[in-house]
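Technical annex B. To support the medicinal chemistry partners, we prepared a structural model of the target in complex with glutamic acid, based solely on the information shown next.
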Amino acid sequence: MDPRVERFMANIIAKNPGELEFHQAVKEVAESLIPFIEENPKYKYAKILERIAEPERIIMFRVPWTDDKGEIQINKGYRIEMNSAIGPYKGGLRFHPTVNLGILKFLAFEQVFKNSLTTLPIGGGKGGSDFDPKGKTDNEVMKFCQSFMTELSRHIGPDTDIPAGDIGVGGREIGFMFGQYKRLRNEFTGVLTGKGREWGGSLIRPEATGYGCVYFAQAMLQTRDDSLKGKTIAVSGSGNVAQFATEKATELGAKVVTLSDSTGFIYDPGGIDREKLASVMEIKNIKRGRIREYADKFGVEYYDGKRPWIVKCDVALPCATENEINKEEAENLIKNGCFVISEGANMPSTAEAVEIFLKNRILFGPGKAANAGGVAVSGLEMTQNSMRMSWHREEVDQKLQQIMKDIHETCIRFGDEKDGYINYVKGSNIGGFVKVADAMLAQGAV
Ligand code: GLU
């Protein structure tokens, strides 16, 4: 390891003990940025990287609520306000039992670079709770969301911090939280994004992360005069991102053969077409069931306890969660001919897996570039809310496509290597950094 990165990381680890995912996210960025900062000493003397790695503010709170049996439950609530140099804090809320401070700090850190890459004026933040919506009734979810927002409402606002969804937080949760915020503040404002379209939401927001991830894969393929047409794709996850990545990839002529959840994956060599995808949406979004039901319904293989990276594919779209592709799985993907990875999830590839992808010179689009479409359309939702207008579907989709192209251009600009290989990791890290760093320089040591 570069000794400068080693020194920097020793300090990060000492200051943030035990936060492994946060260390992983910071290290990946530091590896790209430290050589760049050496060449641009203005960032070095102002200690921009050291400052970016320290959240501006962390809010931690108790979330008490009463379940359907009348028993009191206590969860942890968090909001990490990471960086506001280029705009108000913006980023999702995750409700999942694995949520802890380290996970949210990694996500908030990634969000700063991602949001900068979108070209929109949004800072970075993230929040959530260890609350598990799985198996809870609508009433219990509502009680929890109301209690969570009762405290969070003191800290956020349409010009301060604008949360949205992430794992475990979709339209239902955003609705309950929006209702509670409005009731507490007596204000109808764009304080959350991912709202229903009748009450301030943007068209295309539910689709945006998945669509954007596919647009990014398409842009990467274009650099090799190739396209998604006729490609076989392995998708992981079966939530919002995976569903709309499948929809768009299929529309562009590819064949998606896998989907997964935390218990296993389904393999449908015939491809998950429009009708089958409608069943997935019914199983996951309405029945809130398991992906295994797809295998039962369509008579395809279900691999219990496994992840999709063992199947043959040209393209992989990891759309589930962090660290879902390890070293062995990365090697396996390469061995099976996969040469495009576009990350729909945040940090789905481990550091070892990323190393393998880069070493093999494949098209690797890291999450902070490839999944930025979601937060980008959240940014467009904020714009529409400020104007008290709503744009048509085509208009939002056009803007999303343009943003993904612009992100891709930025990656080329900063990630082009001597041998002509585009290192999207380096490109997105430096490209996301420069705008935030220059804003921080201009605003002084605050
Ligand atoms: N949670 C999403 C992300 O990881 C979206 C955030 C937002 O829309 O603010 O970028």
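Notes passed to the chemistry partners:
DSSP finds 17 helices and twelve strands in the chain.
The first strand starts at residue 57 and ends at 66.
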